[in-house]
Amino acid sequence: MAATVAGATVLLHGLFWLAPGDPIDLLPNGPELRPVLEAEWGLDQPVGVRILRTLGAVAQGDLGYSLIVKPGADVANLAAKAWGKTLTLALPALALCVGLALLLAWRQDRPRLARLVMVSSATPGFLLAAALITLLNEGAFAGMEAGHWDRPGWFALPDQPSALRTALAIGVLGLSGGLLSEARTEAAGLLESLRGSAFIEAIAARGGSTLGPLLHNLLPPLLGLLSGRLVLVLGGALIVEKVLFIQGAGTLFWEAAMNRDHPLAIGLGIAAAALVASGQALCSLGRAALDPRLRRSGP
Amino acid sequence: MMLSFLLTAALAAPFRYAEDQAPAIVNPLFSTSMSEARLSELVFEGLYTDNPELATTPLLARDLSMNADRTEATVRLREGATWQDGTAITADDVVFSIQAMQNPQTASTEYGRVEWIKKAEALDAGTVKLTFARPEARPEDKLFFKILPKGRFAGTAVKRTDPFRTQPTGSGPFRVDKFNDDGSITLLKNPGYRSSVGLSEIVLREVSDKSYQAKLLIYESLEALVRVLPRDLAVLKNNRRVELYPYQTNSWWYLGFNLGRPTGKDANIRGAIARLVDVQSLLDPVGTGDLLSGPFVPSSPYYNHDVPAWKRDGAKAAELLTAAGYSFAAGKWTKGGKPLSLRVCAHKSLESAQEVAINLQSQLQGEGIEVQVDFLDDATWKSQIWKDRNYDLVLSQWSFDRNEDVREQFHSKGTRNFTGYNNPAVDGLLDKARDALDPQQKKSALREVHRIVHDDAPMVFLWTLDSYSAMSVKVKNVVIHPFYFFTWSRTWTM
Amino acid sequence: MSGARLGAGVLGLLGLAWAASALSTYDVVADVHPALASRGPSLSHLLGTDHLGRDVLCRLWLGVRAFVGPGLIAGAVAGGLSALLGGLGALRPGALRAAVRALLTVVASVPRFALVLLIASIFGDEPAILAAAAGLAYLPALVEDIFARVAELEGADFVEAARAHGVPAFRVVAVHLLWVGCRHLILRHLLQLFAFVVVLEASLSFIGGFGVEEPTPSWGNMIAFELSAREGNLWAWLAPALCIQLAVVGTLLAAEGVRDGG
After folding, report:
1. pTM of the predicted model, to two decimals?
2. DSSP one-letter code for A108
3. Which of B181, B206, B209 to mutate to test the interface with A (most CBs of A within 10 A)?
4. What is the pLDDT of residues C181-204, one digit of tens each?
5. Do C110 and A272 lie within an 8 Å CB cutoff?
């Protein structure tokens, strides 16, 4: 995991340092900050040295500070808070996606269902989010204006954080962008190979219930499925948060990218890589704990 | 007891208002946006302010006396005025504020407000002596800038990252309580304020999704909208729970040329474009307003009503372009084989700028001029327009307080003169207007500026939009300042 | 498989529209007619006009350019690099393959959208750069699959036979392993990448800031532009939305069809 974070640091900072021209010129307020940044970023040193220095800093949890979006704020702090907020959306979305995929894959021989799932889940996240929130809001407003109902207690207007918008975000994150369809296909593949495996067939031949063993043996690869989807869900959050006006890492990343606040954007990217890597590590540990074969044969 | 309980409950309801963008910082030294200026109006005070008749009235000052040749003024401070933390406001605070604004290391955006003060010194705890660079007619009109507490800062070189920006201390009727996670800012009544304050809590909400702003007001999720979008005006006008107030901020739209480039430098080209643009047809899809012929709003005393706005004149425009060396061939104006091509830049967050720019592009292309449109975000705008001057035409808007000081835009040394306009006659008139002790002289000087600037056309003046703000009828005693909005908010009640 | 045929049909239509758009005489700039704003469908404007009076159908058609070109570029980048890396990994398994794997794990750990946005923010948001970034972001998945397939095929009969005949290692890798063994795999991934580029472009231009900007039409910015107007023509935003959905689904169906074939 440390290797992945180090690698991500080298990659993202490498992109930044190796871009044509002077990195300070890439910043909109570059000239004002030039004296400060030249010293801090050590621009007189070769790229390799700079990257090593950055690696050292990241190892100590220092991701620099934001230059434009929130001047002076510590990026590590911002990234932790922002990704924390996003995880409250991403993790339920992940669970929803994999859970639903499993349910849909349970019954074999449903090519039409598979097709339907594929078509509907192929909807791009931004489209689904924008459509749903507009429909819901316009519908609610129309109803209020027509006098069908007073402002319902459960409905919060779009400016406020609300359970409705959070639920919408989780739903869209988990079910759009092809995630559900891919997960369903993988789950179907897993189930098929498990069902066809010798020991399951043996249990069935003896007339026992295959449900228990099936589920038990499904857990390890399921963890693998989860860890594989994590990076996709985090990426989807980038779009869904922006469209639904939720203040998480996605919206912050957009602000950083649009305002060319490179330290902040790179810091958020490194934090994302760290999250993904830890997710994968956790899932690997989980798999090893559940599956003795993995423990014996080594990682 | 029931009544007082109900009253308390009523008083506790917050006054919520929406801005397109919540201010990032609360520090008057670095204000760049109107939303910051409005927020500062709640939290800070100046020596003088406007009264509801728009006459200058003392606020933190008690009175002002001048010497014979009007180069010095002695300002006595109001007695008993305190900061929100209870400490007294002293002359040192005033001197500090002026020096901080003037200190080049602070790089304050408000420097222009105090550049006319040569020296400020505290004669005693309650008296400040100001020495001016030039004789001043009515210095109190220019003493509206905010006073800051010296005790909260390390020195007069203030950094943008100074923690003051999220924990400000002011002397105004409200104090900043907290910056909330959702981007909103909560302000509470300043309990030690010397007069009564009607509202107990104010919440500034950032509502970046503009299509919902009006709905939020109608469905009582907000009490006020600072700027109503033109497309929402009809709906709000008909709503009985909402009251509309004109809020114009003396702002006007313009197309600015870049006089540093060949296309902008040539007066013939500028004159031609001014006569090719159909301004009314640019305005119609966007809203209603008045077309302009110069750098003031028509209701301004400085507007020269003898100068008419440019009219579309294709023949004259063709004449001017030919004089500039262009010839019309195959539907395009070309010179030396290269077509006349312009890059128009507009700020992304300027509402409706996209529609205007696309419409303008189409109009000019129909006349044979190629136009490329770029919509820039804030960071790129600052670097490309202000720093690099990398544009041919800029579509934007200026807002002015009641001084309507266009000096920074048109004086050759003006800090906002990024068109690069330089006309010694205009410089002279602007200096004359600034130094004039007689308001009539100032008026005639600025009206002459209007005429010359119209003819020189460093900008094509477009329009001033009919602008309104909207408030829930729950808010009583509302008087809105035409620029700062909250100047008289102390008396508002809910 | 009817799904694959539908998908192929959609792709064909997109390709045709793209090629035809090069011959189009429609002038995006000249078509501004505020007087005709937000009209519904009629004979002269089959899908009506948007709120600046521009013809929706023509803009829809030209909007194809926003992603087909970039999609092809992304495909070229991903296809070329993956063939290169896959081939290297096959030629020199062991340390080199492990090194490539490690690099790709790092790239895969940053969410694709984030990587593309970051690259756009640093290098500029020209369509070619966005496309190359998309191809790069997609690389890990593709190369992993190639490695897996190559490992599977290592012991296959036809490969052993080729080696026994003395075919040089480079040719074995390039022709037998990559072309014969992996081409369907690569094509499937490239089609999925194309769908990703469609969504990427539409999302970026919908949110604004990156991607194709007004007045050049893109299906994403058409939706965003209309949503900001009040009483608009329904088709002005519904049509682009439906087109995006159709393009993505069609491409994914086609990809699925390739899977079946390979």
Report:
1. 0.83
2. S
3. B209
4. 788 888 999 999 999 999 999 999
5. yes
